[in-house]
Amino acid sequence: MTARTTPPAGAAGKAPGKAAGKATGKRRTTMAPFVFIAPALLFFLAFMAIPIGYALYLSLQGLRIVDEGVFGIRTEVFVGLANYRQMLTDSGFWAGFGRLGLYGIIAVPLTLGLALLFALLLDHGAARSKRFSRVAIFLPYAIPGVVASLMWGFMYLPSTSPFSYLTEKLGLGTIPFLDAGVIYPSMANIAIWGGVGFNMIIIFTSLRGIPPELYDAARIDGCTEWRIAWRIKVPLVAPALVLTGLFALIGTLQVYGEPTMLSPMTTEISQTWVPLMQVYRDGFIRDDLPLAAAGSVILAVGTLLVSLLLLKITQRRAFGGIQ
Amino acid sequence: MSNETTGRPAMLPHQRAKIVPTVLLLIGAFYSLVPVAWIVIASTKSNAELFSTFTFQPGTGLLDNVRDLFAYEDGQFVKWAGNSLLYAGAGSVLCTLISTCAGYAFAKYRFRGRTSLFYLILAGVLLPGMTLAIPQYIIMAEIGMVGSYWSVLLPGLISPFGIYLARVYADASVPDSTIESARIDGASEYRIFTSIGLPMMFPGMITIFMLQFVGNWNNFLLPFIMLADESKYPINLGLYTLMSKGSGEPSLYGLAIVGTAVSVIPLICLLLFLQRFWRLDMISGGLKG
């Protein structure tokens, strides 16, 4: 294959100088782009494309006991969609999605809402101590999710929790952060804490890109700051909101490390608390990798559908810069 | 400050307008800092103090805790820190280079299959880590690399989002006219890339590196699946090990807390130092291509 080099933008419109006209008019062919893309393509094939193909193949296999002699030997045989049937009819797997949904309904809107709120406040002319707040709110981004879970976990644990310490002093008893029901907001809080800062920075950078003349016109017309924020700023940063929303959603569907980290602290988090935990258990504790592969493919398809739905609803505004 | 406010009986409306956003921002900052403050203070406590004194009261055991941490299983913690640096540091440098080359090519050349190849790679963003990790584990097992440093390092070298960002950045920051004049001067495509493309893309590369670094540093699932030998664990996984052993042995809780504090502080410093170099407008689409 060969590739054409790009002619400079607007070259056709320029008065064609004799020497320049000769050089730019002729399009060279070169192998260079393929050389540049080769490493990425190689790793993409080796660690994404081939594994996905293999996961699909594996999900159609099954470990079955083949009767030969006295001892049955577990061997891999083709079982069609049996693994998918087993996963999709497993009420535990669906219950995991239910818990995930509950967790996501708290975590995603609050993360994005707070990120948008703080971004707008940072962009608000009158607010003070912006630099400090921006850095402080962004700080949790540097802290790994599982480490954040550990920190919050200790702040939830009745014996070490500062909140429970206060309520106990007031004679109200400890706060059951890690008990049934409360575990959802507690888990969501960890995600919100870790996610607001990064999303805030993305939305804020996007806000900075809006030409300030737009606000002047609105102010002359008597718009309040609140209306400017709501009617001008928010619609203009919509692509950034869609993008952050998409990532928040994908992140939620893949939540794994955080509940795993909290599980030693509470009996509420079972081995199958979220779908990925069940997939891990099937694959690496029960050694049924084909079933785990089927579970993970279901999750991937789910992620894809949810993402496409989001992009459809929001009219594909994310990744909009690239044609 | 007090000079200005004293002597005025009522607050003027524009002052109130100033206070509400400021207070809200400070609440956000407080919320973000409390757990960090807690972990730092908790790390100063001895095991007895941890469960008995008020949680925000500093303790007396910091030095003992740090000594215990570094003494744990003959300096296992230092190993974990080194491993995390290797996975996140070396992995991210290589990933940034690979992404930059690819992004530059996607932005600056027209060739057949460019768009479809780009979207094919970008679709990789949507693949859950677990969906990839299971077959990656089997493939690594087949070639005898499960449990090795490579099994964690290699899969992290491809980042669809990094390639996307590199393309956006190359589109916006490397003018076609500059490339074209270098061509007229007879520079080869490779020379143009190394002496014009790379320097112009440098701020973007820093951003890709930082995102990738934090991503790799945070990655829990892949090492969790690939590694069995505790001496190859990154910090994340090491702390998890301390925690899960800690439910039977409460003294390890203390170690996990100090370990968390010690691992979080350098990361925060790195972030504070590098944040001025970030070009996050790449992500939000603020760059005009």
Under the CATH scheme, the architecture of the largest domain in chain B is Orthogonal Bundle
Give, in order, the helices and strands of chain B: HHHHHEHHHHHHHHHH
Most residues in contact, chain pair and counts: A-B, 116 and 113 residues
Instruction: Spell out the helices and strands of chain A N to C.
Output: EHEHEEHHHHHHHHHHHH
The percentage helix of chain A is 55-70%
Question: What is the straight-line distance between the termini of chain A?
Answer: 22 Å
Poorly predicted runs of chain B: 1-9
Which structural class fits the helix and strand makeup of chain B? mainly alpha
What is the residue-mean pLDDT of chain A, rounded to a whole number? 84
The number of domains of chain A: 1
Which CATH class of chain A applies here? Mainly Alpha
How would you characterize this protein structure?
The complex is a heterodimer of chains A (323) and B (289). Chain A is mainly alpha-helical. Chain A has one domain (82-313): MetI-like (MetI-like fold, Orthogonal Bundle), CATH 1.10.3720.10. Chain A has helices spanning 18-25, 32-59, 82-88, 91-122, 130-138, 145-156, 162-169, 183-208, 213-220, 225-236, 238-253, 257-262, 275-285, 289-313; strands at 3-5, 29-30, 61-67, 72-78. Chain A has a two-stranded antiparallel ribbon with strand order 1-2. In chain A, strands 3-4 form a two-stranded antiparallel ribbon. In chain A, strand 3 (61-67) and strand 4 (72-78) form a beta hairpin. The longest helix of chain A has 32 residues, at 91-122. Chain A starts with a strand and ends in a 10-residue tail after the last helix. Chain B is built from 15 helices and 1 strand. Chain B is globular. In chain B, helix 2 (13-42) packs across helix 14 (251-274) and helix 13 packs antiparallel against helix 14. The interface between A and B is large, with 116 and 113 residues.
